[in-house]
Write the structure tokens for this entry.
Amino acid sequence: MGLSAGPVPTRVEPATKAGLLELVDHAVEHGWDRRRACRLLDLDERRELRWRTRQALGGPDALADQAPGGTPLHGLLDSEREAIIELFGAWGDIDRSHRKLAHRGSRLSLVHVSESTVRRVLADHGLVLTGPAPREPAEKRPWPDWLEWKPRRIWAYDFTHFTRAKRCAVAVLDMVSRKWVATVVSAEETSTQVEVCFLAALEAEGLLEVIDARDTEILRDALLSGHPEQIEAAIDGGQIPLLLAVSDNGPQMRSHSTREFLAGVHIAQHFGRPHTPTDQAWIETLFGHVKGEWPHLEKIVDPGDLAAELDHVREQYNQVRLHASIGYVTPDDEHEGRGDAIRRARRDGLDRARQDRLDYHRRSRGQ
């Protein structure tokens, strides 16, 4: 009958229902109680009674399940369905959303239905709303040929917000060593904060003296112009930028003031693709780690306390916290060139420990 061990399923074919009723009748004819027969078949007694009533009133065809939903009093009218189809034809290419179409219908006093009703009616008629055309993918800008992948050569910077303190913070991160170089907390988010933060980072890394000692007027003018051809010509002439600054396309990063300042300190700019935060994933994840591992920062209300605590956290981040992406050493270790030795010492230690275990077990087993 299409049944398996266990209770009778929610949906059962009419032939299966008729067979179950016949089994119950057969059991009753041989002296069984109807309730006992239903219990043996794992069939609810009230359900069996409903089936029997339907069969008595309408015959075997009455055992077939009706379509779900029935005929509710608040069911959709045919005129409303036609209005939804008309709405799709007139506004489908403009609104491109069943939610917008539902509100468009009310706005035009054409039909007043829920958003899900519009979607269901369109699906019943095989009508599909075309979404917005996908954007043409932007080509990723390659790293410049003069760039060296080592500390103090490529920095990333970005802003983040601390809403309870009503402040934002801009951070500069060394992308190679992952060292958090400098931070500035401010009530504004402009090119001024970018300049202050970079000056602090350059001073902390001892690069201001390097800038003063170089004769790079040609490079400074080229960086200020922003033209790739002029920058390449200066680089071909031996005028290498001090470092590369990586950021998104925020207005404070793209502003003329920021470009003028960075050109003055011989820093080239590199922008990620719009709507592609992974192009600057290094700095995007910095404050994600910081806010996730030091959650009390987002609860601080006083701006002065926030700035002091960020300085403390930056020290912990650089000197104590092991960073997975650089082989579980601290950013300071990697920044100062100690990372390779620490990683090599761990590999050597693992090899020695393995050999010690082998020697011990061989001696203990007499091998």
Notes: The two ends are 68 Å apart (CA to CA). The first strand starts at residue 154 and ends at 162.
